[in-house]
């Protein structure tokens, strides 16, 4: 769900993104209710961790980018390409 963050300005894209998010949310609810019936709030707890996950990912990207800029540690080319795509 964190990957489906909607940042498009077009209404049709936003609507499709919202439908995808709704479908993923429903799938998560169904899965959690079947697999973890003893904790009915588990899906909500998972959703509440998403902002922290996004914040942590941003800090990790910043950290690796600073390491890249220092040039002290060799990095794999694929990793560098992925890092550049995020910055």
UniProtKB/TrEMBL annotation:
The GO molecular function terms of this record are: DNA binding; hormone binding
Alphabetical UniProt keywords: DNA-binding, Nucleus, Receptor, Transcription, Transcription regulation
UniProt keyword Nucleus present: yes
Q: Does the keyword Magnesium apply?
A: no
Look up the domain of life of the source: Eukaryota
Q: Which GO terms describe its biological process?
A: response to lipid
Which part of the chain is the NR LBD domain? 1-86
Q: What is this protein's record name? A: Steroid hormone receptor ERR2 isoform X3
């Amino acid at each position: 769900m964190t990957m489906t963050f909607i940042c498009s300005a077009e209404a049709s894209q936003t609507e499709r993104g919202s439908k995808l998010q709704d479908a993923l949310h429903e799938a998560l609810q169904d899965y959690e209710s079947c697999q973890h019936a003893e904790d009915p709030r588990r899906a909500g707890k998972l959703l509440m961790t998403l902002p922290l996950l996004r914040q942590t990912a941003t800090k990790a990207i910043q950290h690796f980018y600073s390491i890249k800029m220092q040039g002290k540690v060799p990095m794999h080319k694929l990793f560098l390409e992925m890092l550049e795509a995020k910055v």
